[in-house]
Structures are given as C-alpha cells and as structure tokens.
Design goal:
about 375 residues, six-stranded mixed β-barrel, two-stranded antiparallel sheet, elongated
Length: about 375
C-alpha cells in the first residue's frame, strides 16, 4: 500500500517532484565539485610527497617542518645512512622554473625538483629512463607537464630561470616520463641534483656549496618509522624528522585549504536538508485532508510514514542520479589545468551523504503526518 500511494502521487505530481529533483541535482553538482576540487587541490599540493619512495623526511632543526624554510648540507647524508635501521638517504631540493614553449604558446610554471640518481626521492619512470649521472643535462617530466606541453621522451625542454637580475635559459633533454607528481600546485620537472643547482633561480653567483631542502630516508623496516622519527634528531645534530603523512600535511596551505573546502561541503549538505525538508513540509500541509481520509478508512500511521519516506527517498535518488551523471559528463570536458579529481572513496562518501539528505530533510514531514487527526483534517473535529 505504501509503495502504491508513493508512486501514484509521484506520477500525478511529476512536474513539481521533478522540480525538487532538479534542485537536488544542482546540490549534488555543487557537493561533488567541492569534493573533486578538494581532492584535486590537495593532490596538487602533496602528490609528489605522498608517492615518494621513502618513510621519513628529515628537515633542518627549527624549520617547523617547512620544506621552504629548511636547509641541509650534504654532510648530513653520511650521518643518516650510518644510523641503525636506515637503508638509504636521498637529498631533495625544491625551487621553481618556467618552461618556454615554441610557437608563442604561454610558458608553463613548474616545480623544479633536484634528486640524486638511484637514491630515495627519485621518481619511478614509466616511459624512457632515469638520469645517467648527477651532472647530466637531463630531465624527467611528470604526466601533468607532458599533457600541458605535449613534450615526450627524446624532446628538448627549455627552462627559464632568473639568476641575479638576468634571465637564463637552459636546454635539457627529456629522458623519462613519470606519472602525476605535482608539488605546490604545479606540474613537476625532475633533474639531477648538481644540474638543479646550476639551473635553479638564485639571487647571487653560482657557488660550490650545494645545499638541499630536505632528505628522504628509506628504512629497512617501515614498521620502525615512529621509532626512527624520534631517534634521528637524537643522533644527527641540528635536524628534525617526520613521517610522510605529517610531512605532507605540513605543506604550506594544505590543511587550511582542505578545512575550507570541507566546511563548504558541509554547509551545502545542510542547505540541501533544509531545502528538501521545506519542500516536503509544504507538500504535507497541502495533503492534510487526503491523509485524514486515509486514516479515517483505516490506514495505519506506519503505512502513511512509509509512503512519505519512500517518496522522499525516490525523489532524492532521482536528483542525485541526474546530478552525478551531469557532474561526471561536465568534468570529462574540463581542461587538464583545472584541478578536479574524482576518487572512488571520496565520491562514494559524497553520494551517500547526498542520498541521506532527503530522508533527513523529510523527517519533519513524517512526524507531522503521524500527528494528523482524521476528524480535524476533514473539518469534522471540535
């Protein structure tokens, strides 16, 4: 009976119910795009660090786990590799550069990351090869760089960097292509560490003192990560250490960015609950005589409540289905520069949350329907 009543009314009032489904579809569009934007921006900030082949990141002491504020000289590598439980240590150096593109295309700003070949921090290459030496004029580009520049293995990339007051240009051969390895919301270009020191932007002349930002440490047993994070500062002077999760959460702006987007998503869901609740409350006020008649001829409260809940659920499911399909279709046509990423887990959580807003918003209507007195609803009560 509840199913019949629910579906019958949906069909008879399909125009107005379709309207609320489209409103839910728009809310779905907004929620999914906020979720996708959170994933995209978060990934663009920490993608390289979250995929790095290391267990611990070592910083300069008192740098507050900030890569930009940390400076570590090469002598620390030997101290770290001699520690019990450390398998290997690789220096990492970060800066920015600009890829100059032919045919008048807009230059692309990239993260320029210096790594030591064969050490932790070097990215796995899916096409081509890695570096021949620490001084090689070679580069490995990530997938995002390749998509935006159309560069491929064997091409020559032109990097522009400001050194002192002059713009300098360097030609590097693209020898490898990795998967997505963005850092600081920019596509990445990886070069050998000595080459990095030569081509990076600087305010003064080139010196022989090569310093890095951090050191990536690979452990013999990853289960000892917490132990090594505590013991490294005790055995190596003027450094501090963090596990990978802590390291990428300390990336500037990452935590604040995610908190802002999560707040937007929550408020959007609250608005959805209020919109759906208000719509079905108005519907319920219009149906008071009909519900009174149903109760007068013997319909139970359980039947009436089930019909209302089923109706709300069906309308919500239709709206969420329309919104999800439209969102995915629209996102498929976005340019690669738009940081929208839909991952299975976060998208599923968002869709489940959206499916719940209908029943939650309709609870007021259910409660009201249970309190309707048949005689008063038909105008016969005192």
């Amino acid at each position: 009976m509840a199913v019949y009543l629910s579906v019958k009314e949906l069909w008879r009032g399909r125009g107005r119910f379709l309207l609320i489904s489209l409103v839910i579809a728009l809310i779905t569009l907004l929620v999914l795009f906020v979720a996708g934007l959170a994933e995209g921006l978060g990934s663009g900030n920490i993608e390289y660090l979250s995929k790095i082949n290391a267990d611990v990141i070592v910083y300069q002491e008192n740098s507050q786990l900030s890569i930009g504020a940390s400076r570590i000289d090469r002598s620390k590598l030997g101290d770290l590799t001699r520690l019990d439980g450390v398998q290997a240590a690789g220096p990492l150096a970060f800066s920015s550069a600009t890829i100059v593109l032919p045919d008048g295309r807009k230059p692309l700003d990239v993260s320029l990351i210096g790594v030591e070949p064969g050490k932790p921090g070097e990215v796995p290459v899916r096409d081509g090869r890695s570096f021949e030496s620490r001084r090689a004029n070679e580069a490995v580009i990530d997938r995002n760089t390749a998509l935006r520049t159309n560069l491929k293995v064997g091409d020559t990339v032109t990097l522009k960097a400001v050194q002192g007051t002059k713009e300098e240009f360097y030609l590097l051969k693209v020898v490898g292509l990795s998967d997505g390895q963005q850092y600081s919301l920019r596509p990445s270009v990886f070069v050998p560490d000595i080459t990095w020191d030569k081509v990076r932007p600087r305010s003064g002349p080139l010196t022989n003192d090569l310093t890095y930002n951090v050191v990536a440490v690979k452990l013999d047993d990853p289960a000892r990560t917490k132990e090594l994070v505590q013991s490294i500062p005790q055995n190596v002077a003027r450094v501090e250490a963090a596990d990978l999760v802590t390291a990428y959460k300390k990336t500037p702006g990452y935590t604040e960015q995610q908190a802002t987007l999560e707040t937007q998503r929550i408020f959007t869901l609250i608005i959805g609950v209020l919109v759906v609740g208000g719509f079905f409350q108005i519907q319920m006020l219009q149906k008071v005589p009909q519900i009174g008649m149903l109760k007068a001829i013997g319909a139970r409260n359980r039947t009436v409540a089930s019909a209302v809940i089923l109706q709300v659920t069906l309308v919500t499911m239709i709206g969420v289905a329309i919104g999800t399909a439209f969102t995915l279709r629209l996102a498929a046509n976005f340019p690669v520069s738009v940081p929208i990423v839909f991952r299975a887990n976060s998208t599923a959580i968002a869709i489940v949350s959206l499916l719940l807003i209908g029943p939650i918003g309709g609870l007021v209507s259910v409660r009201y329907s249970l309190r309707i007195e048949p005689l008063k609803a038909l105008g016969l009560g005192g």
